Amino acid sequence: MNSNATTGFIAIYRWRVAPEHEADFRNRWRDLTRQGSEYGSFGSCLGRGANEELVAVALWPSESAREKAFRSMSADGPWPPAERVSEDKLHVLDDLWKKSPFRG
Q1: Burial zone of 60 (CB within 10 Å; 0-12 exposed, 13-18 middle, 19+ buried)
Q2: CATH architecture classification, 9-91
Q3: Please, which residues have CB within 8 angstroms of residue 65's CB and are 6 or more apart in sequence?
Q4: Per-domain residue ranges of the chain
Q5: Is 0.85 surpassed by the pTM of this model?
Q6: Per residue of the chain (104 residues), what is the pLDDT tens digit?
Q7: CA-based torsion, 91, 96, 99, 104: positive or negative
Q8: CA R_g for the chain
């Protein structure tokens, strides 16, 4: 298998969420992440980063697949109050994950 990926897209999101809204935020994040898998997403991972920010790393086959999924996914209900701190977009250049969805 070639360790150099020619496709793959990673989105990294950071949010500030008040403690009283975190459970609702995490439930909403899980629901939409599961829904995303129906539209081609390879999944996502949510963790806690610096300054208590919530950080999600989402894997997609391509940026266009992500955009198409976002247009198609159901947006039932609003997100709980949260401040999106940042969104980083990464196009995979060299994929050396031990188990990678980009290399099959």
Answers
A1: buried
A2: 2-Layer Sandwich (3.30)
A3: 9, 39, 40, 41
A4: 9-91
A5: no
A6: 445 445 799 999 999 999 999 999 999 999 999 999 999 999 999 999 989 999 999 999 999 999 999 888 876 677 888 988 999 999 998 888 877 776 66
A7: positive
A8: 15
